[in-house]
Design brief:
mainly beta; 17 strands
Length: 200
């Protein structure tokens, strides 16, 4: 994780306050956001930290923030009852992930590789946090000369019936995974974009 330090001169003292967020001064709803808070030369138990729009607590590795709403949260640091510094953070919802099959959302996949895949996954490309989404359900659609065939899954796993439908696939045929629903650590259930892959 990236640490972004913030240093401000203490008001009326020679002290500095340091506030460091682990994700570019952004806090996310529904998760414990690690934040580093320190005032050089002052013991941690003498530092008082409060926050607007959320709650903050001391943990073994530093501090953790749980925002209440999107917008902004201001962390205020005080020593001996005197404010040392403020730091403003943006509060956002966790981005919607991308559903993947064999690590892909679009493009091609070999039939050999397709038959080895056990489950769909939800990923957050280029996102700096280790956050997991659980896929709750999805539909599998296969279209060929005999018509459309659809199968449903109540979790992330590829069912035996889906694998049997993929077994006779030929190069150039397309498989679709749609109606994909996933739940994140913030408790939100979101709809993910479909997966469209052609057998190569």
């Amino acid at each position: 994780m990236v640490t972004i330090p913030f240093i401000a001169n203490a008001q009326g003292t020679s002290q500095d306050a340091v506030v460091a967020a682990t994700n570019m001064n952004i806090l996310y709803l529904g998760v414990h956001n690690p934040v580093e808070v320190a005032v050089p030369g002052v013991l941690s138990d003498k530092v008082n930290v409060t926050i607007s729009n959320g709650s903050i607590k001391k943990v073994s590795s530093g501090w953790e923030v749980i925002p209440a709403n999107t917008g902004e949260s201001v962390i205020t640091i005080s020593v001996n009852g005197k404010k040392v510094a403020d730091k403003t953070f943006r509060v956002k919802t966790i981005p919607v992930p991308v559903a993947v099959f064999d690590g892909k959302n679009v493009g091609t996949v070999s039939k050999t590789d397709a038959l080895k895949v056990e489950a769909l996954e939800a990923v957050l490309p280029d996102f700096g946090w280790d956050i997991s989404f659980k896929i709750n359900s999805f539909s599998f659609l296969l279209s060929d000369e005999s018509g459309d065939r659809m199968e449903f899954a109540k979790d992330s796993r590829i069912t035996d019936r889906m694998k049997s439908l993929m077994t006779p696939l030929q190069k150039g045929q397309t498989i679709y995974f749609k109606d994909i629903k996933a739940t994140g650590p913030d408790g939100r259930t979101v709809a993910l974009s479909p997966i469209i892959l052609k057998i190569d």
